[in-house]
Amino acid sequence: MTIRLAVATLVLTLAGVASARVPKPSFCHDGRFVKPPGGPSLVAGAVVTTPEALVLAAPTISIPGRCPAVKVRLRPTRKGLTVIAAWPRNTCGPTRVRLRATIDARCEVMRGVLRAARAVPVPFAAPRCGDASIDAADGEECDAGGCDANEQCSEDCRCVARAPTVSFGAEVQPIFNARCALPACHTGAFPTQGLDLSAGRSYAAIVGRRSTERSDLNLVDPRATATSYLAWKISGAPAGQTILGSPMPLTGGPLSPAEQATIRTWIEQGAVNDQAVTTTSTTTVTTTVVTVTTTVTVPESSTTTTSTTTVTVPESSTTTTSTTTVTVPDLTTTTTAPAGVSFETDVQPIFTARCALPACHSGPFPTQGLNLSDGSAYADIVNVMSTERPDLKLIDPGSTSMSYLWWKAGEAPPGQMIMGAPMPFLQAPLSPEQMATIRDWITEGAPNN
Questions:
Q1: Are residues 258 and 307 in the same domain?
Q2: Same domain for 215 and 121
Q3: What is residue 328's predicted lDDT score, i.e. its pLDDT?
Q4: Residues 290, 387: one domain?
Q5: Which pTM was predicted?
Q6: Parent domain of 80
Q7: Average pLDDT in the 299-317 region?
Q8: What is the 3-state secondary structure (H, E, C) of the chain?
Q9: What's the pLDDT tens digit per position in 191-236?
């Protein structure tokens, strides 16, 4: 018995020593894990962006330029940190995409597999870029700095030639003015596709805005021309992809190679808004009239003579206007952002006038159980699953491509379909202005404001 107890004690002691040698897992809350060049794309069949990366920003993870941020499950283990996430259909591709990976205990490399239905699983090993250390074995050459004066550290931690910065206001907008913001095209009260590319309106209309033709893509996706639909329309779609409608511009022939390169470089550099903001101050000085009255008393005739002299001061009769132009970079807080869309004052009135009608989406027994009347609509649609398409929410905040109500009022994305009839039923479709209002409200996060 004594021998057995001694053996058991020794085993437990050795086990304790062994377990003590296992490094404690590092709980990585964030990090950019970049896939080395070469090999298949992270998402099977996807348009490859360079560099491809998985960006962890707990509690979400994303693949910039391809897969939006979704909730991620993180579970520490002895081997490291287990990472589990899934993207719904039509967010990364036509089918659901699942991620299962592990970040090593030192939070240096993410290794795992991305799986899409009916596609070959894509294994990957992505070192962490931006961790303040240069991992030369993984091909890193810099880490947010450390390159020559004529080079810059790229997003995959490699030194690349520093390209001259393209100005949106001085170089991109003039192209839009000359070739796009023309009568009966992308300007005026009713611009084509609701897209106004005139000065002062174009930036807000394209950067981070979903395309009406390809609702799975932004018109301009900063730093990613491969997933910017505007770049496709002016230069052609990537291999295996297509555009809807005609290439742009519609008239006058395509943009010159230099004009195309200007727009593409601007996007790749982050699509910065450097337009000048003009402020005008006016100072008005009123004309001043000075009247001098002199009274002289003449005792001989007991009369009083009065003379009046009027003096006009012309120097003060001018109106001066001074104009000051201040260049405000896109990232400063002084840039005036377009006013947000209000659910109460902008969106609800559309529902009230076109949807919350007798025998439709109002009353004690609304169609499909969906009440769009004032006071009920928001709770009935935001983050609520559709009864016709239970795999979709009626309104998915931030994503029109995954909001079934948007499909019903407009049209389904390519390869998708709606059940039943488009809405509004037995009436004309919503106007482009009404659709733009609902679109902007959804992309702004569908706030209850």
A1: no
A2: no
A3: 44
A4: no
A5: 0.37
A6: 30-161
A7: 46
A8: CHHHHHHHHHHHHHHHHHHHHCCCCCCCCEEEEECCCCCCCCCCCCCCCCCCEEEEECCEEEECCCEEEEEEEEEEECCEEEEEEEECCCCCCCCCEEEEEEEECCCCEEEEEEEECCCCCEEEEEEEECCCCCCHHHCCCCCCCCCCCCEEECCCCCEEECCCCCCHHHHHHHHHHHHCCCCCCCCCCCCHHHCCCCCCCHHHHHECCECCCCCCCECECCCCHHHEHHHHHHHCCCCCCCCCCCCCCCCCCCCCHHHHHHHHHHHHCCCCCCCEEEEEEEEECCCEEEEEEEEEEECCCCEEEEEEEEEEEHHHCCEEEEEEEEECCCCCCCCCCCCCCCHHHHHHHHHHHHCCCCCCCCCCCCHHHCCCCCCCHHHHHECCECCCCCCCECEECCEHHHEHHHHHHCCCCCCCCCCCCCCCCCCCCCCHHHHHHHHHHHHCCCCCC
A9: 888 899 999 999 999 998 999 888 888 999 888 888 899 999 998 8
